[in-house]
Amino acid sequence: MKDKLYERNEFIMEEKEKSEVKVENQVPKKDEKKAEKKEVKKEVKKETPKKTTAKKQPVKKAEANTNLKNATKTNTKSAAKTEKKEEIKQDLKEVNTEETPKQEDLTFKKVENVNMKKEKLEKKEKKEGPGHKVAKFILVIIAILICAYVVFVTRNSLILKDIKKKVSDYKDITNYSYSVKAINGEIETEYTLTKKDKIERADINNITNPNANMIIYKDFNNNEGIVVFKNQNKAIKSLADKTSTFMSEMPFEYAYIDDTINGIMLYAWIYTENVNGKDCYVIQLDKDLKTWVEKDTGLVVKEQWGENNFTEITKIELNNVDEIYKPDLTGYEVSTQE
Fold first, then answer.
1. In 84, 122, 124, 218, which residue has its Cα 20 to 30 A from 186's Cα atom?
2. DSSP string of 173-226?
3. End-to-end CA distance of the chain
């Protein structure tokens, strides 16, 4: 019994101690709450305006309502604007996000094209070695030469055809005379050739050797020919068609060129030069084989066939011969030759 009472007393004492600890813990919490409430009340009093100011500035209910309505409207408008701005920003972001890959694709394609071109050029350079480059260079030169030759032949053809057309007016001429100065190596001569219809005469003065001066006369009407050596007082008669000829159709030479003109234009070198005040074409067939042709008439005015061999027409008359005289053989020793 004593033990039980002892245990009971100890139990009661423990319960009292626990209750006291709880009370001690709760008291300061209550005090803290009261202090916080006092501080809140003080702050509210400071922030709230005095009743006198509220009385002095009364606000009407209608005005307050209108202000509230306007405020709500402005707030709604501003909210709508902000929403639209945000939507536009989002759309722009989406557009930019869509365009950037496209631009990236385009730049990528450009880079690819440039790389492809570089690769092709590199392949060509690899394929085209020094031999290919030399071959291309030679082909280009050949093409240029061909074009130049075509131009050269075309020009020659036009000039020669123009000459032939102009001189063709004198092809069948039978009345003319021309004077010539000729140098054949060391021999210098001057002569005049005259023709009228079927009669021809050549008066030759040999400046280097006067004993060689002569007259050659031909009359094809009666086939009579005479050669006179003036300084020797000798003459020879013969048939006209067997008498040595000194006559030539030198001025009208290109009037009788037919198919040979096609050969000349392939290789002739043609340029211009002035002879005795006349503008002439120089037709050069070789280094020392040249012919000077007057541009206006197509008549030959000079020929060269060697380094020191040429003939030059100093005077020409067309359709101006009235009569050709037969040589007077009085005092000459005349011989006949068949």
1. 218
2. --EEEEEEEEEETTEEEEEEEEEETTEEEEEEEESS-GGG-EEEEEETTTTEEE
3. 208
- Count Cβ neighbours within 10 Å for each residue of 102-121 and write b for 16 or more, e otherwise: eeeeeeeeeeeeeeeeeeee
Q: What is the mean pLDDT of the segment spanning 267-272?
A: 94
Scored b (16 or more CB within 10 A) or e, 271-297 reads eeeeeeebebbbbbeeeeebbbbbeeb
Q: Provide the whole-model pTM.
A: 0.59
Q: Work out the number of other CB atoms within 10 angstroms of the CB of residue 123.
A: 10
CA distance 128 to 215: 76
Q: Does the pLDDT of residue 82 top 90, yes or no?
A: no
Three-state SS string over 251-311 comes to HHHHHCCCCHHHHHHHHCEEEEEEECCEEEEEEEEECCEEEEEECCCCCEEEEEEECCEEE
Token pair 């005049």 is found at 192
How confident is residue 31, by pLDDT bands cut at 50, 70 and 90? low
SS3 for 237? strand
DSSP state of 250: G
246: buried, middle or exposed (CB in 10 Å: 19+, 13-18, 0-12)? middle
Greatest alpha-carbon pair distance for the chain in Å reads 217
CA-angle at 181, arms to 178 and 185, nearest 5°: 145
* Strand arrangement, sheet containing 175-184: 269-275, 278-286, 289-294, 300-306, 309-318, 175-184, 187-196, 199-206, 214-219, 224-229, 234-239, 333-336
Strand-strand pairing, 278-286 and 269-275: antiparallel
Phi–psi pair at 330, nearest 5 degrees: -65, 125
pLDDT score of 97 more than 60 = no
Q: Are 175 and 193 in contact (CB under 8 A)?
A: no
Type of residue found at 318? L
Tokens coding 136? 């291309």
